[in-house]
Specification:
This protein is of the alpha+beta class. It contains four helices and four strands. It folds into two domains: 50 residues, Membrane-bound Lytic Murein Transglycosylase D, Chain A; 44 residues, Membrane-bound Lytic Murein Transglycosylase D, Chain A. The longest helix has 8 residues. The two termini are 20 Å apart.
Length: 101
């Protein structure tokens, strides 16, 4: 995972994933996915999570995805895409991202 696509956030007392996603104007499912959590998971005060930065497009791979389809989806070539995504396993459930221009 390329850390330049994310900001760090330290959980404060009373925070929820839904509330944090609303505060940062991001999809709650994306926030939970990036952090390996479910929306109903308990988060702890002082726990550090990642906040997806704006300006990036994200995609969760599905069974049957292939590299050409994903490159076409992001409208990018392999060299550009691999700079942001250091592991292109294309296993189901892999989160991929690319900086929008």
């Amino acid at each position: 995972m390329n850390r330049e696509m994310y900001d760090n956030y330290i959980i404060k007392k009373g925070d929820t994933l839904f509330g944090i996603s609303k505060q940062y104007n991001i999809n709650p499912e994306l926030l939970s996915l990036v952090n390996g959590l479910n929306m109903n998971d308990y988060i702890y005060e002082n726990q550090e999570i990642l906040i997806p930065k704006s300006g990036y497009s994200y995609y969760l791979t599905k069974s049957g995805d292939n590299l050409n389809d994903i490159l076409n989806l992001f409208k990018v070539n392999y060299n550009e895409f691999s700079k942001v995504n250091d592991k292109l396993l294309l296993e189901e459930g892999q989160l991929l991202a690319y900086k929008r221009v």
